[in-house]
Write a structure and sequence with these properties.
Length: about 375
């Protein structure tokens, strides 16, 4: 029994030794290198770029007051439509004390002059009725009386405008009423009732009471790098997508390319604009982030292969073409435009040729 067990152990050791030898022998043999293969085929290649930007109204204005004052009433809210000339807010005037004092003084003086002119007129009229003075003298006194009346009315109106912001004779054109300058949608009203506002002057831009825009005329506003702006021309087609509106796509044409760059993060960027067209089924809001895809170059029905199959050597380009024996011949080619995946072949290949691609890695190979 012990003898049989001894033979079994020896046999197992021998089998293990032979198996290990065979395994190591097979793994030590060089494996055949295999490559992916790609046929040269006719295709359409478009070199595109994607420009990020946002949607903005073409015509957006800040409505500002004509006088200094305090917001007494807001008649509109953000999101409401407004017509040109429609009242958005009403102000309560804060008069300038120096101007107010001057206007009051002017009114008092005008009343004194009017009272004296009226006395002169009444005296002159009595004499004229008795034919004791000439018509010429009477006309001069009458004219002075009328001028004094006009001066008193003008002084009264000036005082009302300074004190109240509106005169009694021109209430419809009151400067205390802040009116929209365009027809559109109110995007924002950054003030509240009780806020002080100031008119625009040489020292400041004035307080914005409302921002109004025509939302029926929207544009895409983006920036493109200087390395690509040279390929752009006005009128080029664009495809605009809005991230906040899945499925939205608008065909557009490039309508503006900035003549001057602006520096952003160390790179020169050029502003571009294009009109955004909508069928009205989706509401587009001002400030939406958007992407515009622009076709920089296009080649229709050209011979193309994957760009990864190209070997670059200086100014020359080569591919490895499969021959009848199954090996590969290094062949010079002339390339055209590339979309980053496929590249145009102008010379050196014909349709149906098979070119060598990247190596197929076997188990245990290192990349």
């Amino acid at each position: 029994m012990k003898k049989i067990l001894k033979y079994i152990i020896i046999t197992l050791i021998g089998v293990l030794f032979i198996g290990t030898f065979v395994f190591l022998f097979k793994n030590s043999r060089p494996q055949e290198v295999q490559y992916r293969e790609h046929p040269a085929a006719v295709s359409t290649i478009r070199r595109t770029t994607v420009v990020t930007g946002k949607i903005e109204p073409r015509n957006e204005v800040n409505v500002k007051p004509q006088i200094n004052g305090i917001i007494a009433e807001l008649r509109k809210e953000a999101g409401q439509s407004v017509k040109e000339g429609e009242v958005i807010a009403k102000l309560r005037v804060i008069p300038d004390m120096n101007s107010l004092s001057s206007a009051q003084s002017r009114l008092r003086l005008a009343e004194i002059n009017l009272k004296q002119a009226e006395t002169n007129y009444n005296r002159e009229k009595a004499l004229f009725d008795k034919e004791l003075v000439s018509a010429e003298e009477y006309d001069q006194v009458l004219q002075a009386y009328r001028q004094a009346q006009e001066e008193r009315a003008a002084a009264q109106e000036s005082l009302e405008v300074i004190r109240d912001g509106v005169s009694s004779g021109n209430a419809a054109g009151s400067s205390t009423l802040v009116r929209s300058t365009i027809t559109g949608l109110i995007l924002d009203i950054p003030v509240k009732v009780g806020n002080s506002v100031i008119q625009a002057n040489t020292m400041n831009d004035g307080t914005t009471v409302a921002t109004v825009a025509d939302m029926g005329d929207l544009i895409f506003n983006g920036k493109i790098d200087e390395t690509e702006v040279g390929s752009l021309v006005e009128g080029m087609p664009m495809r605009i997508n809005i991230g906040a509106l899945p499925g939205f796509e608008s065909e557009a044409a490039l309508e503006y390319i900035a003549p001057k760059a602006v520096e952003e993060n160390g790179a020169n960027q050029f502003e571009i604009r294009a009109a955004v067209h909508s069928d009205g089924t989706q509401e587009i809001r001002s400030g939406y982030s958007a992407n515009a895809t622009i076709v920089l170059q296009s080649a229709e029905d050209v011979l193309a292969i994957p760009e990864s199959t190209i070997e670059f050597a200086g100014d020359s380009t080569f591919v490895y073409v499969k021959n009848e024996a199954g090996s590969y011949d290094r062949t010079a080619v002339v390339t055209g435009i590339s979309d980053g995946i496929n590249i145009e072949i102008k010379e050196g290949l014909k349709e149906g040729d098979t070119v060598r691609g990247t190596r197929i890695l076997a188990m245990g190979d290192k990349k």
